[in-house]
Amino acid sequence: MATINYEKGNKGDFFFTVNERVEDYFNSKKLSKKTNTFGIFKALFFCSTYLILYFLVLTANGQNGLLIASFALMGFIQICIVLNLGHEGVHGAFSHKKWVNDLLCYSFDLIGSSGYLWKMRHIYSHHKFPMIPEHDVDIQQTGMLTFQPLEAPKPAFRYQNIYAPFLYCAYTLNAIFRRDFQDFFSGKIGDKALDHSPSGWFSFIFSKIFYFTYALALPLLLSGCSVTMVLVGFVCMHVAASITAAVALFPAHLHEDAIFPSPDENGSMPTTWAEHQMSVTMDFGTRFPWVAFFFGGINYHAVHHIFPMVAHVHFPAIRKILKTTATEFGIAYHHKPSLNAAVYSHWLLLRKNGMAHVNEII
């Protein structure tokens, strides 16, 4: 696989200018780029809510309705935690202290995935090569869906916009039972070869033991509910987590106008790194503050890709600077103001790319 090379930037270009303006913003207001009091409040809020819900699962005392409802809400809060804490930790954006960020990475273990692996997937593949086929592992084809336009898609793909939402309900289950093991033993993520150290092996194995102990074994032992009901609750938790993750993550790159740029035969891309990030990311749901509250600012996705080490609590202010600067340089800024519009745009992508020709779409 050829090494990817972006065009070199110059002083006075888009990235230099927007970065300079963002630096001026933080300096003039004497702000840290890391999280603030509001970000800490959110972290405490989501973690305490999760502990309360987990306590309710363990003390359901045979109340099946309480068990199922608590499990389902846990699934939603799990994604809120990993987006508000884990994702920030992966990028070193939450705190100036490395050990705090490293600790937050392992919040991904709460959903059964591996924080150790998630960081490598996210940093070494997705952020380096977003939307570049065969380099960005997040858009790898599964054989059941296609996000990319194909000359001759499988006949079943014609209906992928109908069945994809059902597949998405198993998104987190797929991650913990298949994707993590595939990534760990494949020996490579993106263009980074994996040579797991003893601590890497321990982290991966421990994460799986920890997850199934706290999320399944303890509820089976302590909830007072039947094995069947606990398993139903466990599945409901993953369905809730999967739907939440799909809504929060997919529209940011995979929308109706998404492009999948490829390098030339020498591995060279036609634009600079920053211009590429702008071309393949989209901000969405910015009209409603609650979207960023629950999703950890992941909906300010263009902002995040340009400034990955800045805490999401600053994204609304940075977005204004980014949008203005992009307009000045004639760079497209992709945006859907509402969450509904973004989700619908993703559905249109599935519908369009499931067919051989765009004009087949009625």
Describe this structure in words.
It is globular, with a radius of gyration of 21 Å. The protein has helices at 14-29, 37-58, 64-90, 98-105, 115-126, 160-168, 171-186, 198-222, 227-249, 273-280, 289-295, 301-306, 315-328, 339-353, and strands at 5-7, 188-189, 192-193, 268-272, 283-284, 335-336. The chain is mainly alpha-helical. Helix content is 57%, strand content 4%. A two-stranded parallel ribbon has the order 1-4. A two-stranded antiparallel sheet has the order 2-3. The protein has a two-stranded parallel sheet with strand order 5-6. Helix 1 (14-29) runs antiparallel to helix 13 and helix 3 crosses helix 4 (98-105).
Please render the helix and strand layout as text.
Blueprint: E1 5-7, H1 14-29, H2 37-58, H3 64-90, H4 98-105, H5 115-126, H6 160-168, H7 171-186, E2 188-189, E3 192-193, H8 198-222, H9 227-249, E4 268-272, H10 273-280, E5 283-284, H11 289-295, H12 301-306, H13 315-328, E6 335-336, H14 339-353
Parallel strand pairs: 1-4, 5-6
Antiparallel strand pairs: 2-3
Helix pairs in contact: 1-13, 2-3, 3-4, 3-9, 6-14, 8-9
Key features of this structure:
362 residues, mainly alpha, two-stranded parallel ribbon, 6 strands, 57% helix
Coarse structural class = mainly alpha
Taking pLDDT < 50 over at least 5 consecutive residues as the criterion, the unreliable ranges are 358-362
Radius of gyration: 21 Å
Number of helices: 14
Order the strands across the largest sheet as they lie in space: 1-4
Tally of DSSP β-strands: 6
Approximately how much beta-strand content do the residues carry? under 5%
How would a crystallographer describe the biggest sheet? 2 strands, parallel
Order of helices and strands: EHHHHHHHEEHHEHEHHHEH
Overall geometry comes to globular
Helical amount among residues, as a percent range?
Answer: 55-70%
- The average pLDDT score comes to 92
Give the termini distance in whole angstroms. 39 Å
